[in-house]
């Protein structure tokens, strides 16, 4: 089994670029490492799976509490390279995150997913996630 690692160094973060870019194509390569480092100051943790000399899957998460649900582990990002999909990498990362959540006394694991990501939704339903809310946002310009 491929070990799950935490991206800490600039080099490790940069190795995660391709897998994260597959999910977040709005990211700019020149800003990527600094964006991740800024988010790490806010508690963001970037996990990765390395296989065949490259990062094939990533998960970014943080933990925080909210009045309506208590302490949670929130998954910001979960992505697998197109060429590596169907091999169980995302499930491996999710199961690792369930363990992290349990060890940190989280009540639940949460994530948001865009409505067009139906393939990802199949995985989430298989993993017993439920649709518990609508997520609304408003740009501030």
Topology of this protein?
Elements: E1 4-6, H1 10-15, H2 17-23, H3 29-41, E2 45-51, E3 54-66, E4 70-80, H4 89-103, E5 108-111, H5 118-126
Parallel strand pairs: 4-5
Antiparallel strand pairs: 1-2, 2-3, 3-4
Number of helices: 5
Whole-number radius of gyration?
Answer: 15 Å
Can you give the helix content as a percent range? 25-40%
β-strand percent reads 25-35%
Mean pLDDT: 94
SSE order, as H and E?
EHHHEEEHEH
**Poorly predicted runs of 5 or more residues:** none
Major sheet attributes: 5 strands, mixed
Overview of this protein structure:
With 141 residues, the chain is an alpha+beta fold. The chain has 5 helices and 5 strands; from the N terminus they run E-H-H-H-E-E-E-H-E-H. The protein has helices spanning 10-15, 17-23, 29-41, 89-103, 118-126, and strands at 4-6, 45-51, 54-66, 70-80, 108-111. Strands 1-2-3-4-5 form a 5-stranded mixed sheet, sandwiched between helices. Strand 3 (54-66) and strand 4 form a beta hairpin. The longest helix is centred in the C-terminal third of the chain and has 15 residues, at 89-103. The N and C termini lie far apart (46 Å).
Please name the defining characteristics of this protein:
alpha+beta; single chain; 5-stranded mixed β-sheet; 141 residues
Summarize this entry quickly.
This protein is α+β, with helices and mostly antiparallel strands and 141 residues long. It is built from five helices and five strands; from the N terminus they run E-H-H-H-E-E-E-H-E-H.
């Amino acid at each position: 089994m491929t070990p799950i690692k935490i991206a800490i160094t600039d080099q490790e973060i940069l190795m995660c670029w391709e897998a994260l870019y597959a999910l977040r194509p709005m990211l700019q390569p020149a800003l990527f490492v600094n964006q991740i480092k800024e988010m790490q100051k806010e508690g963001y943790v970037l996990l990765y799976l390395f296989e065949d000399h490259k990062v094939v899957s990533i998960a970014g998460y943080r933990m925080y509490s909210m009045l309506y649900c208590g302490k949670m582990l929130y998954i910001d990002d979960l992505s697998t390279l197109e060429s590596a999909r169907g091999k169980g990498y995302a499930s491996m990362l999710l199961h690792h995150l369930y363990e992290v959540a349990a060890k940190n006394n989280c009540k639940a694991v949460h994530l948001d997913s865009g409505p067009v990501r139906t393939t990802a939704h199949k995985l989430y339903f298989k993993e017993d996630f439920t649709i518990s809310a609508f997520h609304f946002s408003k740009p501030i310009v």
